[in-house]
């Protein structure tokens, strides 16, 4: 067994689980698309989320307005009838 092999075995025996996880995470990150792509997709997701939130808010407001208008109509009808 030459020195290189001995070194490999030694490092393998002394690596902690955290180090192994770190290394595998690093290798996985190399496999996945570049960070710039990931960042832009993150931005896109954020933008989409914001849009959804805005839509929800608008919907809520509309619903509230509609409800208030309906209540007013009901009151007027009651006034007319009663």
Overview of the structural elements:
This protein is mostly helical and 82 residues long. Helices cover 90% and strands 0% of the residues. The chain folds into two domains: 1-32, no CATH class; 45-82. The termini are far apart. The relative contact order is 0.04. The mean pLDDT is 79.
Structural class: mainly alpha
Which shape, going by the Cα principal axes? rod-shaped
Termini, distance in Å? Answer: 103 Å
Mean pLDDT across every amino acid position: 79
Helix fraction? over 70%
**Beta-strand proportion:** under 5%
Total helix count? 3
What is the H/E order? HHH
Number of strands: 0
Indicate the radius of gyration in whole angstroms: 31 Å
User: Would you identify the regions where 5 or more consecutive residues have pLDDT less than 50?
Assistant: none
- How many domains in all? 2
**Sheet bearing the most strands, described?**
none
Itemize the secondary structure elements and their pairings.
Elements: H1 3-14, H2 17-31, H3 35-81
Biased composition (Basic residues): 40-66
Region (Disordered): 30-82
Please name the defining characteristics of this protein.
3 helices, rod-shaped, mainly alpha, 0% strand
How would you sum up this structure in a few lines?
The chain is an all-alpha fold and 82 residues long. 90% of the residues lie in helices and 0% in strands. It is built from 3 helices and no strands.
